[in-house]
Amino acid sequence: MPFRALGLEAKILRAVTEAGYTEPTPIQSAAIPPIIAGHDLIGIAQTGTGKTAAFTLPILTKLAAQPGQRRGAKVLVIAPTRELVVQIEENVRAYARHLPLMVATVFGGVGEQPQIRALRAGTDVVIACPGRLLDLMGQRCADFSQLKFLVLDEADRMLDMGFLPDIRRIVQQLPRQRQTLMFSATLSKEIESLTHEFQRAPKVIQIGRRANPAQTVTQLVYEVPKHLKTPLLFHLLQDPQMNMVLVFSRMKHGADRIARQLEQKGVRCATLHSNRSQNQRLRALKDFKDGAVRVLVATDIAARGIDVDGISHVVNYDFPMQPEDYVHRIGRTGRAHAVGDAISFVTPEDHGELRALERFIGRGLVRKKAEGFNYSQPVPAFNPADQPRRFPHGPNPRPGQNRPLPPGQPRHPRGQGGPPRPEHSGRPRWRRGGFFRRQGR
Question: Domains of the chain (ranges plus CATH)?
Answer without folding.
Answer: 3-61+70-206 (3.40.50.300), 217-377 (3.40.50.300)
